[in-house]
Amino acid sequence: MLLFSIISFLWSQNKITYTYAIKGTDTLKLDVHSPENVKPNDSLPVLLWMHGGGFSGGTRDNKHHEQKLAEYVTTKGYIGISISYRLLRKGTETGFGCDCPKTDKLETFKQAAIDYLDAAKFILDNKKKLQVDSSKIIAGGSSAGAEGILNAVYMKSFFVDELEDYKDVNFAGVFSLAGAMVNAEYISKHNALPTVLFHGTDDNLVPFGSAPHHYCTPEKPGYLLLDGSEAIAQKLDDLGVSYYFHKVIGGRHELSSIPFDELDAVFEFFGKTVLQDEIIQTKKIITKKSNQN
Fold first, then answer.
1. What structural domains and CATH numbers belong to the chain?
2. Which pLDDT score, from 0 to 100, does residue 289 have?
3. How far apart are CA 108 and CA 111, in angstroms?
4. How many CA atoms lie within 13 A of 87 on its CB side?
5. Which residues contact 267 (CB under 8 A, 6 or more apart)?
6. pTM of the entire structure?
7. By the 8 A CB rule, do 203 and 179 touch?
8. What Pfam family does this protein match (any one) (predicted)?
9. What is the pLDDT of residues 101-145, one digit of tens each?
10. For FRET with 269, which of 23, 131, 140, 281 sits at 20 to 30 Å CA-CA?
11. pLDDT in tens, 221-267
């Protein structure tokens, strides 16, 4: 049953907010942005977006980022959905850096993946009302959100205990901004999807290749090896699966920002690979200018 929350006409004529789960004191919501010209019998592809913020901040409806992205995809014939999720590191003494124990980091990844899968399941359960094509859901996220979606898509069997609850939840593509996953070896011919990756080689928070999260040293409680975009792209390349890898030499964590100037190319890629089943492997390599932040 849909839990209707609010209809807002402030930023989009077709934005509806729903509650997809209540977990303890957290009421988790998602904003559904639909194209203005959607017809009653339409069934549209979806971008399901998870915001960043180190699992301690960020919002699903930031008007300059998440909301702007969701509105953009409606111009491409998609439904844009941006979700809230539990910010488990908010207000904690150890944050999410090198003082945060590895076990806490893994638990944070797990619960973020579960929240994301619950949002996807909500969409699946209400696909007719929301007018979504449940076979064309692109999982997207930035920074912490990218970590959440990568682990949800590619490491569901590792993080989720009740797999049967999500047996019908499937994704058609991945859009990751400065993200990483616990182990890229979980990507296989059976679960690999067309994937867009943006990452800077000098990202100081989320490893670009295979390296410790936040580059913590082995003696630190938060020492946890992750596989970043380079490792993921290499795995997809080996498997012969479509990917679009936007690599910035010298780039840092600013690559977690939504690349609005590049979105036309990103959704052209998804149009060909997700909607038309083409195989495309693209690497775009840029050198960061020395005067850029």
1. 3-287 (3.40.50.1820)
2. 78
3. 5
4. 16
5. 73, 76, 78
6. 0.94
7. no
8. BD-FAE
9. 999 999 999 999 999 999 999 999 999 999 999 999 999 999 999
10. 131
11. 999 999 999 999 999 999 999 999 999 999 999 999 999 999 999 99
